[in-house]
Design a protein that fits this description.
single chain, alpha+beta, three-stranded antiparallel beta sheet, 30% strand
């Protein structure tokens, strides 16, 4: 593998998702973690699934804008909503699944579908998860 263009560094301390902290080396991110109420926890903090969803939504959105610019396609507005779900596995472990919902304004459905497909090919999160977890992607035009 070649040298990375950028390396993010984050450290989790304390009790992990159950009241621990996650901090980046530059201090830009400093979060208290909590088990969500949907998993029987107290809530009141973020959790790894939210962090993954936020990262993927942001990365995919950047990939979408990059692909559109390279193809000289303009749209008037856009958003990417990432849903990351955690599931129990048969062996006592846990797995993830994801759904990406892309919203575009100012293009037709065919163009939106084409841009989303192209973004899914270049997004690092999409490439990292491809074949590893179930992923669905859809595009909606306004």
């Amino acid at each position: 593998m070649t040298d990375g263009l950028y390396t993010a560094v984050a450290t989790s301390t304390g009790d992990g998702r159950a009241g621990g902290r996650a901090v980046t080396d530059d201090g830009a991110l400093d979060l208290t973690l909590a088990v969500p109420t949907g998993l029987g926890g107290p809530g009141g903090g973020t959790n790894p699934e939210q962090l993954f969803a936020a990262g993927w939504a942001s990365c995919f959105h950047s990939a979408l804008k990059g692909v559109a610019a390279a193809q000289r396609v303009t749209f008037s507005d856009s958003a990417v909503v990432a849903e990351v779900s955690i599931h129990p596995a048969d062996d006592g472990a846990f797995g993830l699944s994801a759904a990406l919902h892309v919203e575009l304004a100012g293009v037709d459905q065919g163009t939106a579908d084409h841009l989303v497909e192209a973004a899914h090919k270049v997004c690092p999160y999409s490439n990292a998860t491809r074949g590893n977890i179930p992923v669905t992607i859809d595009a909606t035009v306004a």
